[in-house]
Design a protein that fits this description.
mainly beta; Thrombin, subunit H; 5-stranded mixed sheet; 4-stranded antiparallel sheet; 48% strand; globular
Amino acid sequence: MMCGCRFLAEMGKLQSKFRKRSDLYRASQGEKADATFDSQVMQHEPAHQGSINTVTNLTPDLCVSGGSDQAVVVYDWKQGRVCQSFHGHNREVTKVLCYAGSTWIFSASRDKTVLMWDLNQGDEPIQEFCGHELVVNGLAISPEGRKLCTGSRDNWMCLWDIESAKCEQRQNVCRNLVTHVCWVPGSSSIVQTSEDKTIRVWDSRTWQVTNTFPAKQYIQTHCDVSPNGNYLMSSSNGFGGQGCEATLWDLRQPGCKVVEYRGHLQTAACCMFLPTPPGGPVQVATSSHDGSVKIWDQNTAVCLGTLYLDGAGPLVCLAPTDSNSLLCASFNSGLHHIQVGHGPNQAQVSGAESGGLGGMDIKVVARF
């Protein structure tokens, strides 16, 4: 196992403005029902012990997640069973990332490292990327699968050669406490959000910031780029309905805000573009510390449906599996398989509230 170059980061005194995780957020009463123990929700073998911070897709049947138990878990969510569990971090896992069409898995942690795993090469990491001085929150892989981008709360953005684990580029930007990183599909550009409320676009060839979006009112918690590379969505920290929004930006016109998705009562922790069926509407999804998942019309920002999960705590990450379902990671109650459909505007299981326009039904069908 190889270790990339180490460097000393220049540490600032800026403190995180995120609330402690022990502060559990709840939406206003009357807007939700208790989904935690509903008999109609299939209960599978738990993926983790403790909170789950991150989830992503490996194949159409397999997801990868990480959490406070320091494990990286490959889970067959259709069969409801753990396929593989990787243990190499000594603090909680913050992000996981898979390279499409491969069995590669990357995991970032509060232990300041990134580990690379291969589903077909045993249970030991095949590569280690060392050098950050604080928690690593950002992971992105270049379209051709040769470079890895990492971002941390230590203000450093780094570019690594995956084969050698060598740090080829690094840049420190004052107050740039990285919260998430996305590689723009088919491009040399990388987008990252930060606790300084700023969105930056990097050129991976020069390792310079090429564009900076207008600063938002609150910390930017997450970002996602549309499959065609034209649009960026970012989500915002907030409290009591102030902030708590997601924003759609046009990457072809840097800094151009298209629409905002407003309706969450607490921090919007994750935002994702949803797969679009042929001839279907273009939709996006958000999850929040208020315990809700919302589906939106991308272009009009109309909320098409809302699912509240009482007792789940902050909903911290989403992973769309297809145009009709997505996975959601929660702080208190594991992973949830959520089904999205168009039909009569009524909840089909306790704890699933269909809301908004379009008669969209959103329900939890399994928990693990």
